């Protein structure tokens, strides 16, 4: 999309434009970048999480979990903790409902940071490790369903080669 067309869309909606998939970060969880599917059909947002363990901290329910932030790969593992705000029944795309823990964490997209609710679920079989539902971006962004990565792609960290 040309810059002129993007400015026109922003002027018409008053909102910055994002695509149907974007790279985001979840700084509170130690996730520098994760590819998210922006899903206007899903109400809530979901993060791939496994090895979930509940515990108490200062009389509040917390959860410790692991995340594979890269699609179709399990090599990189990030361990995170968050306070559980509730358990919610969520119906998957296959129609099956299950009870999931819900956490609140900050998300960063296009240089903007704000808190979002995330359900934790094993998304190993799904195409994206994160689903960004409409409640997370409502009144913040305009979604261009035909484009991707308005925020750009993350910079790859180059591996240092060993020299003798």
UniProtKB/TrEMBL annotation:
InterPro entries: Asp_endopeptidase (IPR008503), Peptidase_aspartic_dom_sf (IPR021109). Residues 17-150 form the Retropepsin-like aspartic endopeptidase domain. This is Retropepsin-like aspartic endopeptidase domain-containing protein. Pfam families: Zn_protease. It comes from the Bacteria.
């Amino acid at each position: 999309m040309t810059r002129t067309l993007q400015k026109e869309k922003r002027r018409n909606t008053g909102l910055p434009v994002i695509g149907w998939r974007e790279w985001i970060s979840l700084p509170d969880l130690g996730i520098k970048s994760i590819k998210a599917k922006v899903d206007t059909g899903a109400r809530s947002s979901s993060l791939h999480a496994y090895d979930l363990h509940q515990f108490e901290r200062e009389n509040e329910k917390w959860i410790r979990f692991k995340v594979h932030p890269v699609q179709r790969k399990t090599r990189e593992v990030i361990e995170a903790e968050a306070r559980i705000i509730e358990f919610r029944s969520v119906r998957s795309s296959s129609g099956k409902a299950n009870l999931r823990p819900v956490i609140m964490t900050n998300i960063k997209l296009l240089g903007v940071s704000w808190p979002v609710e995330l359900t934790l679920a094993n998304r190993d079989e799904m195409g994206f490790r994160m689903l960004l539902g409409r409640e997370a971006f409502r009144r913040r962004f305009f979604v261009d369903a035909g484009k991707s990565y308005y925020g750009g792609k993350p910079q790859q960290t180059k591996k240092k080669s060993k020299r003798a």
